[in-house]
Fold this sequence. Notes:
- This protein is mainly β.
- It has one helix at 67-73, and strands spanning 5-8, 25-28, 37-39, 44-48, 51-54, 59-64, 75-77, 82-84, 93-98, 104-106, 111-119.
Amino acid sequence: METVTIKITAEGQIPAYETDGSAGMDLRAHTADGQPVVIAPGGRAVVPTGLRIELPQGFEAQVRARSGLAAKYGIALVNGIGTIDSDYRGDIGVILVNLGEKDFIVNDGDRIAQLVIARYVRAEWERAGELTDTDRGEGGFGSTGV
């Protein structure tokens, strides 16, 4: 287990794993003055969490959508998965988009996303004239079947 340093603003809530098998911790909204954030259909908003973190070198934090919000209300992350780098020290904001048909209201303290801490490696590129052959080759976008 790795230790991550966290700074929480006045009413922010520390991320928490909901079950023993959870890979992601729930992130909760920390709205301005406790006022709800309303996201109209087709609209988007950056919802603050009141959290700042200091990750160890070689780690990232991935902000991911909550499947329940997606299935029930059409709420997704605009950028798919948000990456928090180890040298970022600002507030973690969650960029939500409303793909549903009704206004979506985010209240202070609502669970709005998941946070997954992951190791990463930095790659070095090696230029080549040719790549090795594989059975798949250049096939993509559904080329392996349904």
